[in-house]
Specification:
Aminopeptidase, single chain, 5 helices
Length: about 160
Amino acid sequence: MNAMQIRAYRQIDTDQIADLFHGAVHSISRVLYDSAQKEAWAPTPPDYVEWQARLSEKKPLVAVQNNRVVGFLELEKGENKGSNQGHIDCFYVHKDHQGEGVGKALLMTAIKRARELKYAAIIVEASKVARPVFEMAGFRYKRANKVALRGQILENYSMMLPLK
């Protein structure tokens, strides 16, 4: 098995990332999010044109193993004016590669990059399934959020990792 590599997004990754996102969301336990919530979060089929536009703008970190995308993470500058924070938007690991260290490697790479960019902190709105991953990396819980999406209400958690 080839070692995992973390690299910058390439346009050729688009369909694999869209499929990875869809598969990861739909494999989440129905105890955490029901079928209607998962479909609102990741509509079937994925909109590859929309994903192309998003990824071209966000330019995520991509984890690759055996020439296949096994995870991705979007780190961007936080939207609050005057704030020097990074923001993690999408962060997903392929449903068949969870628990293999892919997410940890992506997250550690993002934290390193945020430090290089001199961000004071990283913020994230973590799903129920992602919250423990962020907590293990030192992110602190701030509050629970209810998010309306395509007629469904999803819960996530605002979290922050101070970097100074």
